[in-house]
Amino acid sequence: EAQVTQNPRYLITVTGKKLTVTCSQNMNHEYMSWYRQDPGLGLRQIYYSMNVEVTDKGDVPEGYKVSRKEKRNFPLILESPSPNQTSLYFCASSSSGRGGGEQFFGPGTRLTVL
Amino acid sequence: QQPVQSPQAVILREGEDAVINCSSSKALYSVHWYRQKHGEAPVFLMILLKGGEQKGHEKISASFNEKKQQSSLYLTASQLSYSGTYFCGTELSGNQFYFGTGTSLTVIP
Asked: Domain B4-108 classified CATH 2.60.40.10?
C-alpha cells in the first residue's frame, strides 16, 4: 500500500530535550516536505527536499533541522524544543515539487513541549 | 505569502452549492486544493497549473485566474461527506509551498 508513515504519532516532551520525528514514504517520491499545523494558521511549510541531499527552508524553519540521506526517509529534528513548537506536524511527499501532482500526507504527529 | 481564503466558514444543507475562494499576492505556478476531516491528514482534491490545465473530480471543480492570482473551488450538490476544512495550496516560482488558513465547510441534512 502506497503510504507515508510518521513516528511517533504522539509525543510529550520537555523544553530542551532533543527529539526526532521520523517520516518514510514507499512511493519513490523525490519531493518531501514537513508542515506544522496550528489553529487559525493553516499548514505552514517548515522544510522541503527536492531529492537526496537536497533540502531547503520553507516558511517557518527556525528551530528545526532536517536531513535527506535516503530517498524514502526525511526526519525532522528539534535540537532544543520549546513550548512554541507545540503543534501538529505532517510529513508529505510528491512525485515532483514543480506542479508534479498531489502531495501525500502522513497521519500526523502531535507534539507537546512542556 | 500565505494565500487568503474566503469565506472562513460556511454551513450548507445537503444539495446546496458552495464556492471557496483563494487569493495570492504573488505570481503562482500552481494551485492545489485539499480537504481535511477532523483528526485526519489533508487529502488531495485537485491541482490547477499555470496555463489553464485542470485536474480533479467531477462534482468538485475549480478555476484558476492567472492574471488575478486567484482560484475558486466549486462544490455542487453538496453531500454530507463534503464536510471538512478545505485548504488551497500555492506553489510560487521556487519550490516552497504555502497553504491558506482554511475554510470550514459543514453540510447538514
From this structure: yes
Every domain of chain B and the residues it spans: 4-108
| Among chain A residues, CA nearest to B104 | A40
Give residue A1's pLDDT band: very low, low, confident or very high (50, 70, 90).
confident
Distance CA A47, CA A34 (A): 6
Are the Cβ atoms of B101 and A105 closer than 8 angstroms?
no
- pLDDT given for residue B84 in this prediction: 97
The residue with cell 513550548 is A83
Band (B56; pLDDT cuts 50, 70, 90): low
Question: Which residue, A101, A106, A98, A94, is CA-closest to A27?
Answer: A94
Task: Determine the distance in angstroms separating the CA of A16 from the nearest CA of chain B, rounded to an integer.
Answer: 28
Q: Which residues of A touch B101 (CB under 8 A)?
A: 40-42
